[in-house]
From TrEMBL:
PROSITE patterns: 4FE4S_FER_1, 4FE4S_FER_2. This is 4Fe-4S ferredoxin iron-sulfur binding domain protein. It comes from the Bacteria. Keywords: Iron, Iron-sulfur, Metal-binding. Residues 177-207, 208-236 form the 4Fe-4S ferredoxin-type domain.
């Protein structure tokens, strides 16, 4: 087969990228396609328009935010030109639930003239609560990522049309009201500026990392990137979410795979 496999991922804390590439490499090999990576984590990547060809395959991977596709991807998805390309989606969540995110992603790609024939929900360590999904994706997750690649290749080579059936509801889960919560910075900060470079919305000052502008999405990229553990959230709403997760979401969830 000719064409390109477009591996598209938004991955502030790297879990979605790791899983996307674990699927993309064997999938590209199985289909005989060139692999092209599209990183949507930072604004320049999200500003580019992706135009697929009819022989192309699109793999979209993203972290689940409040049971939905991250709103930061709305602009990119709204101008995507699928041209009938086959597609697969991966929703990566922090061991709570993916709610309507998988369905929303399938719907979004179908609207952009992609034929979505496979989908999966995978687990990564929760960005806010490291005790939830600790160490994931792990070896078993990566093994299942390879299995998802095989199932997706089979679905594409079979010639069956999508969309793949996935769990979820219409209308989608209502998003919570926007709140202005920004990370704090302790005196341990050495001003290495790694946090600013890792912020997907670029709201951390490049002159003073303790200065954070409005617009934080609480992805925790800065928290996890800081070598001194100087970035943190301790606001009451965040602490309540962490307490809920630690009480109710410790039992291991397993990946789910769906194909036509």
């Amino acid at each position: 087969m000719s064409g390109i496999l477009h591996a598209v991922f938004f991955s502030p804390t790297h879990g979605s990228k790791k899983l996307a590439l674990a699927v993309a490499w064997p999938l590209a090999q199985a289909l005989g396609k060139e692999l092209c990576e599209h990183d949507l984590t930072y604004p320049p990547g999200r500003a580019k328009k992706l135009c697929c060809g009819p022989d192309d395959v699109l793999l979209l991977a993203f972290p689940v935010y409040a049971g939905r596709v991250p709103r930061l991807l709305d602009g990119f998805l709204s101008v995507l030109d699928g041209k009938g390309a086959r597609a697969a989606v991966m929703a990566v969540y922090g061991n709570r639930h993916y709610d309507d995110a998988l369905l929303e992603a399938v719907d979004a790609l179908q609207k952009r003239n992609c034929d979505v024939v496979a989908a999966a929900a995978f687990i990564a360590e929760h960005s806010l609560a490291s005790a939830i999904g600790t160490g994931r994706p792990d070896d078993r997750d990566m093994e299942l990522a390879g299995e998802f690649a095989r199932h997706t290749a089979q679905a594409i080579l079979s010639g069956h049309a999508g969309p793949v059936a996935v769990p979820g509801n219409h209308p989608y889960k209502e998003l919570p009201p926007a709140v202005d919560i920004r990370p704090k910075t302790s005196e341990a900060c050495t001003q290495c500026m790694l946090c600013a470079s890792q912020c997907p919305v670029q709201v951390i000052s490049e002159d003073d990392p303790a200065l954070v502008n409005q617009g934080c999405i609480r992805c925790c990229a800065c928290v996890k990137a800081c070598p001194e553990q100087a970035k943190f959230f301790d606001q009451e709403p965040v602490l309540k979410i962490i307490a809920m997760l630690e009480e109710k979401c410790r039992d291991r969830k397993e990946p789910e795979i769906f194909t036509v």
